[in-house]
Amino acid sequence: MSSTNRTVVVTGIGATTPLGGDVASTWEGLVAGRSGVKPLTQEWAAEQAVRIAAPVAVEPTETIPRPQARRLDRSAQFALIAAQEAWQDAGFTGKAGEDGAVDPDRLGAVIASGIGGVTTLLDQYDVLKEKGVRRVSPHTVPMLMPNGPSANVGLLVGARAGVHTPVSACASGAEAIGYAIEMIRTGRADVVVAGGTEAAIHPLPIAAFGNMMAMSKNNEDPEGASRPYDVARDGFVLGEGAGVLVLESAEHAAARGARVYAEAVGQGISADSHDIVQPEPEGRGISHALHNLLDRTDLDPAEIVHVNAHATSTPAGDVAELKALRKVFGDHADHMAVSATKSMTGHLLGGAGGVESVATVLALYNRVAPPTINVDNLDPEAEANADVVRGSARKLPAEGRIAALNDSFGFGGHNVVLAFRTI
Amino acid sequence: MAATQEEIVAGLADIVNEIAGIPVEDVKLDKSFTDDLDVDSLSMVEVVVAAEERFDVKIPDEDVKNLKTVGDATDYILKHQA
User: Fold this and answer.
1) Per-residue pLDDT tens digits for A210-220
2) Is residue A347 annotated as part of the catalytic site, yes or no?
3) Residues whose CB falls within 8 Å of the CB of residue B18, separated by 6 or more in sequence, listed in order
4) Are A31 and A372 a contacting pair, CB within 8 Å?
5) Region for A245 from its dihedrals, namely left if φ exceeds 0, alpha if ψ lies in -120 to 50, beta otherwise
6) Residue tagged active-site, from B26, B35, B38, B40
7) Sign of CA dihedral A346, A164, A78, A262
8) Across the A/B interface, how many CB contacts are shorter than 8 Å?
9) pTM for this predicted structure
10) Which one is catalytic: A170, A202, A252, A414?
């Protein structure tokens, strides 16, 4: 229990995304190259410059009973749906303690969001202005607090080893999973439910991101708007949803005979210290994170055959990441199948690291790399630095141990690289 | 026009159903909001605000703690409605 370098594995996965209400439908959509981007038809969208987004495929209120749903921010609803699926997928039948296979004192939860309960905050401000003080919901604070999704997931599974919420904009979900890996590695917990969630399809975030010139304004072609690595890319498309992993020490998983999807090898973290929102154009901070990953784990670079890239479909960011892969891995970068799944899901901000970790784990487990869709004209700078999986899914090596990376970067200059490998 | 006891219980039943998901037929005078109807302290604030609006009555925060049962709330509203 005092061990400080324990092996961590993934034993459960859950998701609700623009492609489907669970992991199976999401994975099917990713491999098929399906876009989850749609026109925004709400009344408020008419005056926006950006009138497209990737909403969840299944409304959370279809599974969460109304009395419970009305006291949960939408981001917490997504997190609970994904966590419930992951928890059951890991083979647990009830809360920790009720299911004797996991001790509540040895169970953690780390669920992150980039923005927190923004729709609750803004909707309740509207209530305050329009209906007065007395009508503001008494549930507002636990709904808007950024640790709300993590705390609700902790309550769902009965986590008492610690419930945490790292916040690093669009790297938040990946940072949560990295934090969870360290909780288990260092012996603080045996099992941690970890991932990311986001629900920010609301007029204010869309207007704000739009005014930053960060989002695609390709309103005429929603399904073609998210196009990482294509020369015509013009910004990200806002998505929503959640992705959650059950991480577990290898000994704990073996003792209860759990199915293991992959090993969670570890994380590499760095900060750009360059600009509050612009990526460092040469990928210096990303290279630093990759070196940290390689220095701090026993990951063999030759085994890395797949990268689920951060690639949000912005002109500068997509290429900086690939330059860093080339710089760090040299010629081996030609043997790493790079997939930008945001071409299909849109950008889930703090949810991205969660959903894309689920995708990365399944890519290893099924030995298939999902495609990057909408790459009609590959950017020459992307072509020079990486092997982008375009058009349709690609098989990964059928034999031998293989590894994959999931990159996530956030406004503020946060860089997180997670590494997984087959067992 | 002031609501009757029957109308108040029916109105509270609608409110509790909306907030806590309890079937309207289970909301009776002798039922405790917290022990029988899944209404915790935060949700009780919602019940009170909804009742104020529905029955045109003011229920100050210091009186809310005395409203333990549906009957307590019904009596309060009967006595204080405008």
Assistant:
1) 999 999 999 99
2) yes
3) B50
4) no
5) beta
6) B40
7) positive
8) 22
9) 0.96
10) A170
